[in-house]
Structures
1.
Amino acid sequence: MVRLENVTFGYETGGFRLRVPEFSLDDGERVAVVGPSGSGKTTLLNLIAGILTPEAGRVDVAGTEVSGLSDAARRQFRASKIGFVFQDFALLDYLSARQNIFYPYRITPALVLDDAARERTEQLAAACGIGDKLDRHPSALSQGEQQRVAICRALVTQPKLILSDEATGNLDPDSKARILDLLFEQASEAGAAVLAVTHDHELLPRFERVLDFAQFRQGAAA
Amino acid sequence: MNALYLAFSYLRYHWSRSLVLVLVAALIMFVPVATQTLLSTSERALVARGEATPLLLGSRGSQLDLTMAALYFSDERPDPVAMREVEAVWDSGLGVPIPVHTAFSSSGFRIVGTTLDYFDFRELTPARGRVLSILGDAVIGSDVAATLGKGVGDTLVSAPENLFDLDGVYPLEMPIVGVLAPTNTPDDQAIFVDVKTAWVIQGIGHGHEDVVTAADVAAGTAALANAAVVQYQRITDDNIDSFHFHGSQDDFPVSAVIVVPNDTRSSTILKGRYLDSESLTQLIEPAGVIQGLVDRIFRIKSLLDVVTAIIAVAAVAAVGLAVFLSYRLRAREIATAVKLGAQKGMVLRLLAAETVTLVLIAGSIATIGAAIVWRNADAWVGWLLALGS
């Protein structure tokens, strides 16, 4: 599903540099990425999603060399192949839960909001336990419910890869495990792989593999 | 469509902020247009009324006061001129004099004592009822009828005043015999009566029971007036014959005399007759006086335009800042949209859609407002010009 080879990346403003000799993620696999803050975990997700482009090396996702695509093509690829779950949920306060789930369809022509997508939304929401709360705005939902909405938004486009950036970071301990299980369950049903950045070490046993990211970080002078 | 949907959802959710922005933007667009419309209509109405009144004869003094009183029935009260001036114009054979007596009011509207020539001259026709025919009749303008809720068959009572320092100014009850069709001029705000009726209000003419009756003569008490003589406060079929005027009609006052000369030559000759600066009367061309007033108004308008422009720039800057802050508030949304795969054009459309939607809604409101002002400008200007009368 995901393959990185000899990828190097550095921000123009300086700071740390990232070098990933090799990393792979199989179809349907669930991998956790751990490491100290600032080690480049989120940068890795952005490289895989095509939000950032590497200085050198190759990033393949679902058989497509993302690092070789144009900016417009990378955006289109991201919209249709990758689902995102963020630590702060990134829901829009002015849209209802249902419209938040539809949001990816509203912002890119690569996706079409058809009856099938609407039907999937209802099914996903019901499976995530928020089927009766789709007309509420985020301010009327608990944090756990907001993250369920975010999971529905990530999955509704039927992506083959879910990138999760501290998805449970803002949740209470009881909710963390439930939300992660829900994410895995829904990703599994959709046949999607999950690459999750996390600081919650108690959640690591739920993953199939754990990648310690400290090994990829290099100093600014490197 | 998606960008517009999101923009509309955003504006609807933040409705109070959106409402303020829309109203401010609508005002920025509406005020200059409305001001321009009203000013240009005012100029047209003012000049038209002036140009439609060839000459104005009145007491020497402020030409503007004379014009405002005779054409717009305003509060200005020029010294009265005597009716002999009217007769003098008749005798010259150079034009038609139309006396205008504007000293009294009723229920806040000016009572205009004049002759039937005024109705022909201003092309006033009754929408209901008839024109003046007998002493005491009143014909009211359309705004008077609408404001007071009165019509043919109702009555009006003149407000008691003692304007010309004469004794015996009694309120007179006048039957309304006609309601004029609207003209969007000060005539809509006037109560027209015969000039003789105005003199009755003034106390120059009156009606009362016979001081000496046949019975008095028979009883031998005919030499004394009776303290119980009843002074009539309304003119009826029964008492109209008892109304009479004391003194010579030549001395009776009017506020001004509209003079309609037969032709340009007559106009020139007439103007020449009133050039003497020692004379107690003057003959003026209202169009020139009005044009002077309009020029003054439009000099003020230039200043108003500058003030409006400064306020508009400040308001646009304030709205621009509000929109910019709104963009800043939406930075997280934009970042999310980019991560989810939004194209660059979509992000721009997302931001522009909000502004465009705001401007369109504000523009629609401003357009509707401007259309309302444009449609009613004549009526509103007529009302504004009549304010203070």
Note: Chain A touches chain B at residues 49, 51, 71-72, 75-80, 82, 84, 86, 90, 92-95, 99, 103-110, 137 (CB under 8 Å).
2.
Amino acid sequence: MPTYFEKKQLVTPGELLAEGDYLAGNNTYVEENKVYASRIGLADCDNKRVNVVALRSFYFPKVGDVVIGTVLEVGFSGWTVDIEAPYTALLRASDVLSRPFKPQNDELSQVLNGGDLIVAKIASYDRAHDPQLTVGEPGLGKITRGQIIKVTPSKVPRVIGRKGSMISMIKQETGCQIILGVNGVILVTGKNPRDEDLAMAAIQKIEEESHTSGLTDRITQFLKDEKEKTGGKQE
Amino acid sequence: MKEKPELINKKGLRLDGRKPDELRPVKLEVGILSNADGSAYIEHGKNKILAAAFGPREMHPKHLSLPDRMVLRCRYHMAPFSVGERKSPAPSRREIELSKVIRDSLEPSVFVEYYPRTGVDVFIEVLQADGGTRCASITAASLALADAGIPMRDLVVACAAGKVEDTVVLDLFDTEDKVGCADVPVALMPNLNVVTLLQMDGILTPKEFEKAVDMAIGGCRDIYALQKEALKTKYMLIKEEEEVEEE
């Protein structure tokens, strides 16, 4: 029952990873008792489960995910929202208004219009239906200020860091509020645009260097250096 | 053709100086189009082909989407300047057929059942053609799909073999294809050992056919090594750049 890869080895789709008593984890599949990779990524073995951390993927909706989306269209009883997934999501008017929706009383485009950004949670999704969103929880709803940055969805966990170490460090160093959409869209809200730019630069750097070790330390250093630079200019 | 050129000379070499079982030089590059979700470029001898993949995304027109799986669409197209005499840019009978053939040879490799009601589009643009474009296109298109992050059972790699003047040869180029006796393109999923495309154009004896298929599969395996390398190179580069930076 051997495995055919070293830890963190770069593997391509179809590469044989393990044989025998192994389970297929993320981005792998089993055929005739053999585990193969299904995406390009870094192979890893956790107990008997073989995983591939994808270097290239796209967001696929899952119930409970918090995502950031753009309103595409105002419909009769709700909105269609682009959530950077293979499907467009639906947001129902009654969910936003938190009361029964009456077309004669409410003008939907005054609540949310095309182009508006929202933070929402996926309320339901299955193979037969497009995902439905909900904004009925604290922290969800229309975005009124801040800046948006997009990263590859597979890299969102790196932006969060181990037990949230990376994200809380960036929040602390820049004084910005950061909301991560699982779909790879990130909202940065700070006291001024300069703080926001700094936080965005740090996130950009994480995306580019996501697969290297010691990243949190390097990002901390990067933020300190950048702060000194801009601090110097002010004086 | 008025006069048939001597396809294999007395030394047993072909018109372009190759041995019967020799491939043309192959060069592959991944991720060269930034607007596509995934892309690849192949130079197979004098063939120059671009492939771009988009998706999975919502199907347009919507009625073509399938309730239980993703739809894979391919468009094989030859640029007007890709051949000696200007080719009309409108899709010809041959291009429509090749689009279908390429689609059919790629689909078994993709987990289409994962993403119902969606579509993936693959655009293949032949910039320069010199025989064996369907094989080169399949190799490049499969790389583009992998680069787009679409889950796949295996990469698909293709290569042709055929017969010119009584000799079974690997990887025919344009003249050999036109003047020779037969052409057998084969597409292969190398790790699963599954053939996804097998065609024959011309006449071969059963023995010659077997030899041609074996030869083509051997060629596929050689190209697969390059294909894998090309895919890894793109993602390796990022890694190396950082290592230099750190020093």
Note: The radius of gyration of chain B is 19 Å.
